[in-house]
Specification:
Largest sheet: 9 strands, parallel
Shape: globular
CATH class of the largest domain: Alpha Beta
Number of domains: 2
Radius of gyration: 20 Å
Number of helices: 14
Helix content: 40-55%
CATH superfamily of the largest domain: Aldolase class I
């Protein structure tokens, strides 16, 4: 089966629960993201026809290269759901990605996410079942290990059972998102398997993207939290990879992008989008003058219209 990636050294948006909804993904694509990943989707939820779970499969008009990330631990169920997803999404779907890295307690307590790193035989069975059912490549995102470094042996199991590519977030489950990502672990996995390996963890700008590429010899780069409030990071990384100069957006430009994000969330989710905006918009203000004051006002806003006016006034003040 062909590679899920459409270019050499693709720059990908990581799946992040509560953040990488259809609005944010589409915004990242407009800044050069090569492939987006849905928020992780419960295979069991889809099998039950859960209405909220169904919304995770909504795609943006500009999303032409998408991975659906499924979580679960039952091989037959995951295979059935993967088959359904392939039928529903058609040519936009580049791969089915299996989540074997989420560290959240509510996920691992059910045997899902990074809990599968403690049961490699089951993880292999999941990959094998989904691979037989899927019309597109099957990839896996996992961690350095549960509480120690087991990623190389785990990666070999995944490859042996048919995984077409692997993404490694180089922290253990115990680390959660603390400490620094261990690039040497990614390099070790890359040296141990023949399928493409995507490096993930602490990519926050062009410089760190080049360091990930050069230190690990990975086949692609996945950006997670570094993209929050900075969807233009994909343009920055692409410039760094090409050895081209890059000029970051000015403060007014950043606020205009934040406003665009707000307007698209309002169009997609209506008044309920206010909760989503409170997660995203403060991140656009990092390093700005009077950022703490504006952040507080945004958090206190009672409507999307009020948020719009705050952003417009701030953008105007930033040009004076």
């Amino acid at each position: 089966m062909s590679s899920p990636y459409l270019c050499d050294m693709p720059v990908l948006l990581a799946p992040m629960a509560g953040y990488t909804d259809v609005v944010f993904r589409a915004l990242c694509v407009s800044f050069g993201c090569d492939m987006t990943y849905t928020e992780m989707v419960s295979a069991k939820g889809l099998s039950f026809g859960n209405a909220r779970t169904e919304t995770y499969l909504e795609l943006g008009e500009n999303e032409t290269s998408v991975a659906v990330q499924l979580f679960g631990h039952e091989p037959a169920l995951l295979a059935d759901v993967a088959r359904e997803v392939c039928d529903r999404l058609g040519p936009k779907l580049r791969c089915i990605d299996l989540n074997m890295g989420c560290p959240a307690q509510k996920i691992v307590s059910n045997g899902d996410g990074s809990a599968l790193m403690r049961t490699p035989a089951l993880a292999g069975a999941v990959v094998e079942a989904v691979k037989k059912a899927s019309a597109v490549p099957v990839t896996v995102k996992f961690r350095k290990g549960w509480d120690s470094d087991t990623c190389v042996s785990f990666a070999k199991v995944l490859e042996e059972h048919g995984a077409d590519a692997l993404t490694l977030h180089a922290r253990t489950r115990v680390q959660q998102y603390e400490g620094t990502a261990d690039r040497s672990a990614i390099a070790a996995v890359k040296a141990a398997v023949s399928v493409p390996v995507i490096g993930n963890g602490d990519i926050v700008d062009g410089e760190s993207a080049l360091a990930m590429r050069d230190e690990t010899h990975c086949d692609g780069l996945m950006v997670g939290r570094g993209a929050l409030g900075r969807p233009w990071i994909f343009r920055e990384i692409k410039a760094a990879l090409a050895g081209e100069p890059y000029t970051p957006p000015t403060v007014p430009e950043r606020l205009e992008i934040a406003l665009l994000h707000a307007e698209r969330i309002e169009a997609q989710k209506g008044p309920h989008g206010l909760v989503e905006l409170r997660k995203h918009l403060p991140r656009y203000l990092s390093g700005m003058r009077n950022a703490s004051l504006l952040r507080a006002r945004l958090n206190e806003a009672k409507s999307v219209a009020e948020i719009r006016q705050l952003l417009l006034d701030s953008a105007k003040d930033a040009t004076i």
